[in-house]
């Protein structure tokens, strides 16, 4: 391992992630561990240069105030408490972090993507040996970066499965095949499951049922592909650090349970490979960029797992789904031309299951409206509306009503979250 590390021990703080990010921003790697880590476990972590005890409001478990094991205070590296002085070790202020890391711990600022990639390649080769690894490659940021990293580490021993469920954005399945199979030389199984998904979804209008069908069918297709393959020992997943931190630590109750390809049947048990599990999202992007992935893959805006399925409201029909896909492509193209790509957090179109009367070529029309959503947020819990320039909107409206079949009207959703969620379903 090339990188020095500062260990954060979670003594009930609410800002463990923020602190880890702050230390990483200084160029020094940092990881968060639970308060009950043993001195032996701590000593087994490579390149630890210092330990910060991060106390906070969640420091009582079952009525007992928590502390680290007594031997941790006697560790061979500097141990301090952040902002909370104790009689067992000195405290530092957050403003003294830099001096602690560099002067007291003598850590080197050697946390960078190239070192991370070198370390991971070495670790992955050691873990996997000459065995094979399976990966569900959706084309999202996390699974794409995992794929690129594994291709670098083990090449053809990685088998990627891309399930096209027909609910991806325009050009995405093609891009996955082009980038991974043609440019990076990956073994990629492309499963064209469009009919299968759309047949299963036909006539289903309840949003929760639609989501469940898409999720369950995805697992079934992936499982079928996995069963066709021989000699796979590992399953790679794009788990990232916030997935782990937000899934609940010992002092912090579960915020949100995360799973990627959960739900595979018991007889299909693989050992997990999760090379991004210590990275924050911006670091995952930097890693993808360093591995040569294209910008529009690495800086992709968030996209829900059920894809366009939750933007073709109510029961999905092929013609309306196509209209969602085409209008979304136009919106993205025009936002990019207007310099809004990467500036607006998320923007997309959706089409409700309702038609309105209009007029086209001097005749009555009865067609769908397209609704545009463009929002900004930090954590997706609340969101505000992007004030899109009228000239940009004007251009988008003109293109959608002339280029997208079956659409005679365009609306802009002005609702912040709350009360509206970002998606409509
Ligand atoms: P809402 O609609 O809840 O969305 O305001 C918040 C953010 O989450 C995305 N989203 C999903 N992401 N699987 C995902 O991976 C899903 O099922 C899902 N549903 C919503 C949404 O696009 C927005 O960014």
How would you characterize this protein structure?
The chain is globular. The chain has helices at 16-25, 39-44, 97-104, 113-128, 141-154, 172-183, 194-201, 207-228, 241-246, 281-290, 295-298, 318-337, 390-403; strands at residues 5-11, 29-34, 48-55, 60-61, 64-65, 79-82, 91-92, 132-136, 158-164, 187-192, 232-236, 271-273, 346-350, 356-360, 363-376, 384-385, 407-412. The protein is of the alpha/beta class and 425 residues long. It contains 13 helices and 17 strands. Strands 2-1-3-6-7 form a five-stranded parallel beta sheet, covered by helices on one side. The chain has a five-stranded parallel beta sheet with strand order 10-9-8-11-12, with helices on both faces. Strands 13, 14, 15, 16 and 17 form a five-stranded mixed beta sheet that branches. Helix content is 35%, strand content 21%. The protein starts with a strand and ends in a 13-residue tail after the last strand. Helix 4 crosses helix 10 and helix 5 (141-154) crosses helix 10 (281-290). The mean pLDDT is 94. The structure holds xanthosine-5'-monophosphate. The site of xanthosine-5'-monophosphate has 10 residues, from loops.
What's the gist of this structure?
The chain is an alpha/beta fold and 425 residues long.
Layout of secondary structure:
Layout: E1 5-11, H1 16-25, E2 29-34, H2 39-44, E3 48-55, E4 60-61, E5 64-65, E6 79-82, E7 91-92, H3 97-104, H4 113-128, E8 132-136, H5 141-154, E9 158-164, H6 172-183, E10 187-192, H7 194-201, H8 207-228, E11 232-236, H9 241-246, E12 271-273, H10 281-290, H11 295-298, H12 318-337, E13 346-350, E14 356-360, E15 363-376, E16 384-385, H13 390-403, E17 407-412
Parallel strand pairs: 1-2, 1-3, 3-6, 6-7, 8-9, 8-11, 9-10, 11-12, 15-17
Antiparallel strand pairs: 4-5, 13-15, 14-15, 15-16
The chain binds xanthosine-5'-monophosphate.
């Amino acid at each position: 391992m090339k990188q020095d590390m500062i260990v954060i021990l979670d003594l009930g703080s609410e800002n463990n992630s923020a602190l880890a990010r702050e230390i990483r921003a200084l160029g020094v790697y940092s990881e968060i561990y639970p308060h009950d880590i043993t001195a032996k476990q701590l000593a087994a972590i490579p390149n630890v240069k210092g330990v910060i005890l991060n106390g906070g409001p969640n420091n009582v478990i079952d009525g007992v105030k928590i502390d680290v094991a007594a031997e941790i205070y006697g560790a061979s590296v500097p141990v301090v408490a952040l902002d909370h002085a104790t009689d067992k070790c000195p405290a530092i202020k957050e403003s003294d972090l830099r001096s602690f890391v560099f002067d007291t711990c003598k850590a080197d600022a050697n946390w960078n993507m190239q070192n991370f990639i070198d370390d991971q390649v070495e670790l992955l080769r050691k873990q996997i040996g000459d065995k094979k690894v399976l990966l569900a490659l959706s084309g999202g940021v996390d699974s794409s970066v995992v794929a690129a990293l594994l291709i670098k580490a083990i090449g053809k021993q990685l088998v990627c499965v891309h399930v096209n469920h027909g609910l991806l954005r325009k050009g995405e399945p093609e891009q996955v095949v082009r980038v991974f199979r043609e440019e990076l030389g990956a073994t990629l199984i492309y499963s064209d499951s469009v009919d299968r998904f759309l047949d299963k979804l036909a006539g289903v209008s309840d949003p929760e049922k639609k989501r469940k069908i898409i999720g369950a069918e995805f697992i079934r297709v992936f499982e079928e592909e996995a069963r066709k393959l021989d000699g796979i020992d590992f399953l790679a997943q794009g788990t990232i650090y916030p997935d782990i931190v937000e899934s609940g630590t010992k002092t912090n109750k579960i915020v949100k349970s995360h799973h990627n390809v959960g739900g595979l049947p018991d007889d299909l048990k693989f050992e997990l490979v999760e090379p991004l599990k210590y990275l924050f999202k911006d670091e995952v992007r930097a890693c993808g960029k360093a591995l040569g992935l294209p910008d529009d893959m690495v800086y992709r805006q968030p996209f829900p797992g059920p894809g366009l399925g939750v933007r073709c409201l109510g029961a999905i029909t092929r013609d309306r789904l196509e209209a969602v896909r085409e209008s979304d492509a136009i919106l993205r193209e025009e936002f990019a031309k207007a310099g809004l790509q990467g500036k607006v957090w998320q923007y997309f179109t959706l089409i409700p299951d309702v038609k309105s009367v209009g007029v086209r070529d001097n005749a009555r029309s009865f067609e769908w409206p397209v609704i545009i959503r463009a929002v900004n947020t930090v954590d997706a819990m609340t969101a505000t509306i992007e004030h899109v320039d009228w000239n940009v909107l004007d251009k988008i409206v003109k293109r959608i009503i002339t280029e997208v079949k079956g659409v005679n009207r365009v609306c802009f959703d002005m609702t912040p979250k709350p009360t509206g969620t970002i998606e409509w379903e």
